[in-house]
Amino acid sequence: MTRTATRTTPDGDFLHVWGSKTFGSGLRVLDDVDLSVPRGSVTVLIGPSGSGKTTLLRAVALLAPLDTGCVLLDGRLHGYREAGDGHRVLPERELVRARLGVGMVFQNFNLFPHRTALQNVMLAPVKTLRRPRAEVEEEARALLRRVGLGDRTDNYPAQLSGGQQQRVAIARALAMRPKVMLFDEPTSALDPEMVHEVLGAMKELAESGMTMLIASHEMGFAREVADRVVFMDGGRIVEQGEPEQFFTGTVGPRVREFLDKIL
Amino acid sequence: MVWDWDLFVEQLTSTGFLEAAWTTVWLTVVAEGLAVALGGVVALGMLSTSRPVVAISGLYVWIWRGTPILVQLLVLYFGLPQIGIRPSVLQAALLGLVLNEGAYIAVLLRANLLAVPVGQSDAGRVLGLRRWQRIRLILLPQAIRTFLPALGNQVNSMIKTTSLVSVLSVQELLAHTRDTVSETYRPFEAFAVATVYYLAISSLWNLVQWALERRSDVTRRGGRRRPAVPAQLSRIGAP
């Protein structure tokens, strides 16, 4: 992966998101969260459903911007501008460009069903980065090989298994050369035997030095790959620490209760 | 004699009926084609981020779906001259068919655009696609696929709706049939001929529609290359 050489912030602050968000219904989905992800590190978000994991990822991806607070990426405001003593999200027209630094993989893959695997990967680099088609195709084929789908380039999503579709989705996100990759429960829609092939691709990506923020309950993966585990509940970050901490029991009662349910 | 076979066959093969049938066909094709173009624009208007555009699109659909097409045709042909616009019979007929059908197409297309899972739009957004790119590259191709069966229905309906322009004396099938009856005083044979032509035209369309739907079926197209598509995966967008 190509990486930007400029380092304007200390590593601890490569991706920094803080703030709150309230849904129209009055539900406070993110309640004064503050999360830092160092460059090249892997952070796994855990917590019960409705705890705000997905909303936090969508905030970083600028799909559902924060009401207060902001996102910093690689030392720059990401999708926000200074406004008075706080920050304000950019208008949609400018957000389109701002989103480019962040790649996202969804729980339901969200591949484009009318396009082949190769076309799914090639679409955005050609249409939004305006890169030459031949160059993009070569890179797209290489990315599909990297996730183990070199022989599936011409298949439509409906002809691929869930695990294969998710790996295409990973390749599609990587084709945009993001600085950060977000994963929103990437394996929870998969049959058990397909989980490992997706986790394998993610592990390889982590080893290549990609900065990753992952909402997932794959605790085995977290233990093996994550640098940090963050526990969320009720829109708040309740506890965070190294993965071992979450296994050896030095965690609060709320986390303990949750871990007992999923482990 | 109650039923005259010779007259039936004579009329069935007459150039008059053939020409009238041809008029029905081209009226249907041209009107539906223009209506899809108009409806497409209006559907996008209804989904626009601009309030005035949404309001204008909604107003058009409200008026044209809310009034009988027969009234619309009569207003266009007999009403417009009053304000100085004199459309020919054909112009008024086509305009009436297109404006009426366009409103229905707009509603159908809008529904099919909205039915594309919201995750598709999210995926397009994180990939940096602009709104118009998302509509054109992601939403429309999927919406059109689910829209095709409904369009088939609309064309089928349009084949028969064209009979209404006979009130403006456009020489399509119904007008020609009535003229024939007033010459021969044999309504049964003439209307039987018209029935045969209408059935023939709609059957022909059924074939075209079948071919269109087959072509637009993404899994089937890919399936030629790799035949083993598990049944549970063959539905688009199922996961």
TrEMBL record, chain A:
- Report keywords, A-Z: ATP-binding, Nucleotide-binding, Transport
Q: Which SMART domains match?
A: AAA
The record's annotation in PROSITE patterns points to: ABC_TRANSPORTER_1, ABC_TRANSPORTER_2
Q: Which GO-annotated molecular functions does the record name?
A: ABC-type amino acid transporter activity; ATP binding; ATP hydrolysis activity
Q: Which residues form the ABC transporter domain?
A: 15-259
Q: What family is reported?
A: Belongs to the ABC transporter superfamily.
Q: What is this protein called?
A: ABC transporter domain-containing protein
Which lineage is the organism of this entry classified under, starting from the top rank? Bacteria, Bacillati, Actinomycetota, Actinomycetes, Nakamurellales
UniProtKB/TrEMBL annotation, chain B:
Report one GO cellular component.
Answer: ATP-binding cassette (ABC) transporter complex
Localization in the cell: Cell membrane
SUPFAM superfamilies hit by this protein: MetI-like
Question: Membrane topology type, per the record?
Answer: Multi-pass membrane protein
Q: Which GO terms fall under biological process for this protein?
A: amino acid transport
TM segment ranges: 20-47, 59-80, 92-116, 190-212
Q: Please, which domain of life does this record's source organism belong to?
A: Bacteria
Q: What are the UniProt keywords, alphabetically?
A: Amino-acid transport, Cell membrane, Membrane, Transmembrane, Transmembrane helix, Transport
Stretches assigned to the ABC transmembrane type-1 domain: 21-209
UniProt cross-references to PROSITE patterns, sorted A to Z? ABC_TM1
Question: GO terms for molecular function, please?
Answer: transmembrane transporter activity
Q: Check the record and name the NCBIfam families matching this protein.
A: HEQRo_perm_3TM (TIGR01726)
Q: Which family does it belong to?
A: Belongs to the binding-protein-dependent transport system permease family.
PANTHER family registered for this protein in UniProt: L-CYSTINE TRANSPORT SYSTEM PERMEASE PROTEIN TCYL, MEMBRANE COMPONENT OF AMINO ACID ABC TRANSPORTER
What is the name listed in the Swiss-Prot or TrEMBL entry for this protein?
Answer: ABC transporter permease
